Amino acid sequence: MSLPPVSIIVLSYNTRDLTLTCLEQFTPEALSAGWQVIVVDNGSQDDTASAVRRMFPQVEVVCSQENRGFAAGNNLGLRRAEGKAVILMNSDVLASFAALAALPRFLDQHPRVGALSPQLRTRSGAPQAFAYGCDPKPGYLLRRGLHRLLGRGALHDWAVTSPIEVDWVSGACMGVRRAAIEQVGLLDEHFFLYFEDNDWCLRMRKAGWKVMYVPTLAVVHLGGQSEPERRIASRHYRDSLRYFYQKHYGPLATWFVSAALWGYNTLLRLRASAGIL
Protein backbone atom coordinates (compact mmCIF):
# COMPACT_ATOMS: atom_id res chain seq x y z
CA MET A 1 0.00 0.00 0.00
CA SER A 2 1.44 3.38 -1.03
CA LEU A 3 1.96 6.09 1.54
CA PRO A 4 -0.27 9.20 1.44
CA PRO A 5 1.19 12.25 -0.32
CA VAL A 6 0.04 14.58 2.48
CA SER A 7 -0.94 14.22 6.12
CA ILE A 8 -3.15 16.85 7.77
CA ILE A 9 -3.09 17.13 11.55
CA VAL A 10 -5.94 19.07 13.17
CA LEU A 11 -5.34 19.84 16.85
CA SER A 12 -8.46 20.30 18.96
CA TYR A 13 -9.04 21.25 22.57
CA ASN A 14 -12.67 21.73 23.64
CA THR A 15 -13.63 23.00 20.18
CA ARG A 16 -15.93 20.21 18.97
CA ASP A 17 -18.16 22.29 16.72
CA LEU A 18 -15.24 24.23 15.27
CA THR A 19 -13.35 21.01 14.64
CA LEU A 20 -16.29 19.54 12.74
CA THR A 21 -16.66 22.75 10.70
CA CYS A 22 -12.92 22.75 10.00
CA LEU A 23 -13.05 19.16 8.75
CA GLU A 24 -16.11 19.79 6.59
CA GLN A 25 -14.15 22.30 4.52
CA PHE A 26 -11.62 19.83 3.08
CA THR A 27 -11.95 16.26 4.37
CA PRO A 28 -14.09 14.61 1.63
CA GLU A 29 -11.77 15.85 -1.13
CA ALA A 30 -8.63 15.16 0.90
CA LEU A 31 -9.62 11.55 1.54
CA SER A 32 -10.56 11.10 -2.12
CA ALA A 33 -7.08 12.35 -3.06
CA GLY A 34 -5.50 9.72 -0.80
CA TRP A 35 -4.47 12.15 1.93
CA GLN A 36 -4.22 11.14 5.57
CA VAL A 37 -6.36 13.20 7.96
CA ILE A 38 -5.60 13.02 11.68
CA VAL A 39 -7.46 14.76 14.49
CA VAL A 40 -5.64 15.04 17.81
CA ASP A 41 -8.06 15.53 20.70
CA ASN A 42 -5.88 17.20 23.32
CA GLY A 43 -7.79 16.21 26.45
CA SER A 44 -11.13 17.78 25.48
CA GLN A 45 -14.19 17.49 27.73
CA ASP A 46 -16.76 18.20 25.01
CA ASP A 47 -17.03 14.80 23.26
CA THR A 48 -14.91 15.98 20.30
CA ALA A 49 -13.41 12.55 19.57
CA SER A 50 -16.77 10.75 19.46
CA ALA A 51 -18.30 13.44 17.25
CA VAL A 52 -15.41 13.26 14.77
CA ARG A 53 -15.56 9.45 14.63
CA ARG A 54 -19.30 9.60 14.05
CA MET A 55 -19.23 12.21 11.26
CA PHE A 56 -15.88 11.34 9.66
CA PRO A 57 -15.25 7.61 10.17
CA GLN A 58 -12.24 7.61 7.84
CA VAL A 59 -10.43 10.26 9.85
CA GLU A 60 -7.84 8.97 12.32
CA VAL A 61 -8.49 10.19 15.85
CA VAL A 62 -5.70 10.32 18.42
CA CYS A 63 -6.73 11.07 22.01
CA SER A 64 -4.74 12.44 24.92
CA GLN A 65 -6.11 12.06 28.42
CA GLU A 66 -5.01 15.59 29.27
CA ASN A 67 -4.23 18.88 27.54
CA ARG A 68 -0.51 18.50 26.90
CA GLY A 69 -0.11 21.77 25.05
CA PHE A 70 0.36 22.71 21.41
CA ALA A 71 3.73 21.04 20.80
CA ALA A 72 3.03 17.75 22.56
CA GLY A 73 -0.45 17.53 21.05
CA ASN A 74 0.80 18.04 17.51
CA ASN A 75 3.60 15.55 18.13
CA LEU A 76 1.00 12.86 18.80
CA GLY A 77 -0.21 13.45 15.26
CA LEU A 78 3.27 13.83 13.76
CA ARG A 79 4.21 10.39 15.06
CA ARG A 80 1.28 8.95 13.10
CA ALA A 81 1.76 11.06 9.98
CA GLU A 82 2.99 9.21 6.90
CA GLY A 83 2.78 11.89 4.21
CA LYS A 84 5.63 13.32 2.19
CA ALA A 85 4.35 16.69 3.43
CA VAL A 86 2.53 17.47 6.67
CA ILE A 87 0.06 20.27 7.32
CA LEU A 88 -0.53 21.40 10.90
CA MET A 89 -3.87 23.10 11.48
CA ASN A 90 -5.62 24.57 14.46
CA SER A 91 -9.25 23.57 14.71
CA ASP A 92 -10.28 27.22 14.26
CA VAL A 93 -8.82 27.39 10.75
CA LEU A 94 -11.23 27.39 7.78
CA ALA A 95 -9.55 26.23 4.58
CA SER A 96 -10.76 24.59 1.40
CA PHE A 97 -9.03 21.55 -0.03
CA ALA A 98 -7.80 23.68 -2.93
CA ALA A 99 -6.13 26.11 -0.51
CA LEU A 100 -4.48 23.31 1.44
CA ALA A 101 -3.38 21.45 -1.68
CA ALA A 102 -1.42 24.53 -2.73
CA LEU A 103 0.89 24.15 0.31
CA PRO A 104 2.55 20.83 -0.66
CA ARG A 105 2.57 21.99 -4.28
CA PHE A 106 4.62 25.04 -3.22
CA LEU A 107 7.02 22.71 -1.38
CA ASP A 108 7.39 20.60 -4.53
CA GLN A 109 8.19 23.70 -6.56
CA HIS A 110 10.72 25.05 -4.02
CA PRO A 111 12.91 22.16 -2.84
CA ARG A 112 14.87 24.21 -0.27
CA VAL A 113 11.75 25.35 1.61
CA GLY A 114 11.24 23.33 4.76
CA ALA A 115 8.16 25.11 6.13
CA LEU A 116 5.63 27.64 4.93
CA SER A 117 2.41 29.29 5.94
CA PRO A 118 -0.36 30.75 3.83
CA GLN A 119 -1.64 34.19 4.67
CA LEU A 120 -3.81 33.98 7.77
CA ARG A 121 -6.93 36.10 7.49
CA THR A 122 -9.37 37.16 10.18
CA ARG A 123 -13.07 36.45 9.92
CA SER A 124 -13.50 39.84 8.19
CA GLY A 125 -10.87 38.96 5.58
CA ALA A 126 -8.14 41.25 6.90
CA PRO A 127 -4.57 39.91 7.17
CA GLN A 128 -3.95 38.57 10.65
CA ALA A 129 -1.19 40.12 12.73
CA PHE A 130 1.71 38.00 14.00
CA ALA A 131 1.31 35.41 11.26
CA TYR A 132 5.08 35.54 10.73
CA GLY A 133 8.04 37.39 12.15
CA CYS A 134 11.69 37.62 13.10
CA ASP A 135 13.57 35.68 15.74
CA PRO A 136 12.79 37.26 19.14
CA LYS A 137 16.34 38.48 19.77
CA PRO A 138 16.81 41.25 22.37
CA GLY A 139 17.10 44.04 19.79
CA TYR A 140 13.98 42.91 17.97
CA LEU A 141 11.93 42.62 21.16
CA LEU A 142 13.11 46.06 22.25
CA ARG A 143 12.03 47.62 18.94
CA ARG A 144 8.68 45.86 19.06
CA GLY A 145 8.03 46.93 22.63
CA LEU A 146 8.95 50.56 21.91
CA HIS A 147 6.72 50.59 18.83
CA ARG A 148 3.79 49.47 20.96
CA LEU A 149 4.51 51.83 23.85
CA LEU A 150 4.89 54.77 21.46
CA GLY A 151 1.88 53.79 19.36
CA ARG A 152 3.90 53.41 16.17
CA GLY A 153 2.25 50.23 14.96
CA ALA A 154 3.70 46.90 13.90
CA LEU A 155 7.22 46.17 12.69
CA HIS A 156 5.92 43.98 9.87
CA ASP A 157 3.56 44.50 6.97
CA TRP A 158 0.92 41.83 7.49
CA ALA A 159 -0.64 42.77 4.14
CA VAL A 160 2.34 41.77 1.99
CA THR A 161 1.22 40.39 -1.37
CA SER A 162 4.24 38.39 -2.53
CA PRO A 163 5.98 35.38 -0.91
CA ILE A 164 8.76 36.38 1.48
CA GLU A 165 11.45 34.47 3.33
CA VAL A 166 11.00 34.92 7.09
CA ASP A 167 12.42 33.64 10.36
CA TRP A 168 9.24 31.88 11.46
CA VAL A 169 5.62 31.32 10.50
CA SER A 170 2.63 30.56 12.70
CA GLY A 171 1.81 26.96 13.54
CA ALA A 172 -1.90 27.77 13.17
CA CYS A 173 -1.62 26.56 9.56
CA MET A 174 1.82 25.37 8.55
CA GLY A 175 2.98 23.12 5.72
CA VAL A 176 6.16 21.20 6.52
CA ARG A 177 8.38 18.96 4.42
CA ARG A 178 8.88 15.48 5.87
CA ALA A 179 12.60 15.60 5.08
CA ALA A 180 12.91 18.71 7.28
CA ILE A 181 11.06 17.03 10.15
CA GLU A 182 13.25 13.96 9.89
CA GLN A 183 16.34 16.17 10.02
CA VAL A 184 15.45 18.44 12.95
CA GLY A 185 12.99 16.30 14.91
CA LEU A 186 9.55 16.97 16.30
CA LEU A 187 8.28 20.06 18.09
CA ASP A 188 9.94 20.75 21.44
CA GLU A 189 7.46 19.71 24.13
CA HIS A 190 9.05 21.98 26.73
CA PHE A 191 6.90 24.69 25.08
CA PHE A 192 3.32 24.32 26.32
CA LEU A 193 1.99 27.28 24.35
CA TYR A 194 3.75 29.95 22.25
CA PHE A 195 7.20 29.97 20.61
CA GLU A 196 7.16 26.29 19.66
CA ASP A 197 6.70 27.32 16.02
CA ASN A 198 9.51 29.91 16.34
CA ASP A 199 11.80 27.23 17.75
CA TRP A 200 10.92 24.67 15.06
CA CYS A 201 11.50 27.15 12.25
CA LEU A 202 14.80 28.29 13.77
CA ARG A 203 15.99 24.69 13.96
CA MET A 204 15.02 24.17 10.32
CA ARG A 205 16.85 27.31 9.24
CA LYS A 206 19.96 26.24 11.14
CA ALA A 207 19.75 22.94 9.23
CA GLY A 208 19.74 24.83 5.91
CA TRP A 209 16.01 24.99 5.13
CA LYS A 210 14.12 28.14 4.17
CA VAL A 211 10.91 29.30 5.87
CA MET A 212 8.38 31.16 3.72
CA TYR A 213 5.24 33.22 4.25
CA VAL A 214 3.10 32.88 1.12
CA PRO A 215 0.28 35.47 0.99
CA THR A 216 -0.74 34.35 -2.51
CA LEU A 217 -2.34 31.45 -0.61
CA ALA A 218 -4.82 32.23 2.14
CA VAL A 219 -6.94 30.62 4.87
CA VAL A 220 -9.20 32.04 7.58
CA HIS A 221 -7.97 31.79 11.16
CA LEU A 222 -10.68 32.62 13.68
CA GLY A 223 -8.06 32.78 16.44
CA GLY A 224 -8.04 32.35 20.20
CA GLN A 225 -10.79 29.73 20.29
CA SER A 226 -9.02 27.35 22.68
CA GLU A 227 -6.60 29.71 24.41
CA PRO A 228 -6.69 29.95 28.22
CA GLU A 229 -7.77 33.12 29.98
CA ARG A 230 -5.53 36.13 29.48
CA ARG A 231 -3.65 35.84 32.78
CA ILE A 232 -2.76 32.20 32.16
CA ALA A 233 -1.93 32.87 28.50
CA SER A 234 0.43 35.67 29.56
CA ARG A 235 2.19 33.32 31.96
CA HIS A 236 2.62 30.70 29.22
CA TYR A 237 4.00 33.41 26.92
CA ARG A 238 6.60 34.54 29.47
CA ASP A 239 7.61 30.98 30.38
CA SER A 240 7.97 29.98 26.74
CA LEU A 241 9.99 33.07 25.85
CA ARG A 242 12.37 32.47 28.75
CA TYR A 243 12.82 28.84 27.73
CA PHE A 244 13.44 29.91 24.12
CA TYR A 245 16.20 32.22 25.37
CA GLN A 246 17.72 29.55 27.61
CA LYS A 247 17.78 27.16 24.67
CA HIS A 248 19.12 29.47 21.97
CA TYR A 249 20.72 32.58 23.49
CA GLY A 250 22.24 31.62 26.84
CA PRO A 251 21.95 32.78 30.50
CA LEU A 252 22.88 36.45 30.06
CA ALA A 253 20.27 37.01 27.36
CA THR A 254 17.74 35.06 29.44
CA TRP A 255 18.36 37.40 32.38
CA PHE A 256 17.97 40.39 30.06
CA VAL A 257 14.66 39.25 28.63
CA SER A 258 13.28 38.44 32.10
CA ALA A 259 14.15 41.94 33.29
CA ALA A 260 12.79 43.50 30.11
CA LEU A 261 9.50 41.62 30.44
CA TRP A 262 9.12 42.83 34.02
CA GLY A 263 9.81 46.43 33.00
CA TYR A 264 7.56 46.28 29.96
CA ASN A 265 4.62 44.81 31.88
CA THR A 266 5.11 47.39 34.64
CA LEU A 267 4.94 50.22 32.09
CA LEU A 268 1.79 48.75 30.56
CA ARG A 269 0.13 48.56 33.98
CA LEU A 270 1.11 52.16 34.76
CA ARG A 271 -0.28 53.32 31.40
CA ALA A 272 -3.51 51.43 32.00
CA SER A 273 -3.94 52.89 35.51
CA ALA A 274 -3.39 56.35 34.04
CA GLY A 275 -5.98 55.74 31.36
CA ILE A 276 -3.43 55.69 28.51
CA LEU A 277 -4.12 52.96 25.95
UniProtKB/TrEMBL annotation:
Superkingdom field: Bacteria
Record protein name field: Glycosyltransferase family 2 protein
High-level lineage: Bacteria, Bacillati, Chloroflexota, Caldilineae, Caldilineales
SUPFAM superfamilies assigned to the protein according to its UniProt record, in alphabetical order: Nucleotide-diphospho-sugar transferases (SSF53448)
The keyword Transferase appears for this protein: yes
InterPro entries for this protein: Nucleotide-diphossugar_trans
Keywords of the record: Transferase
CDD domains tied to this protein: GT_2_like_c
Source organism per UniProt: Caldilinea aerophila
GO molecular function, one term: transferase activity
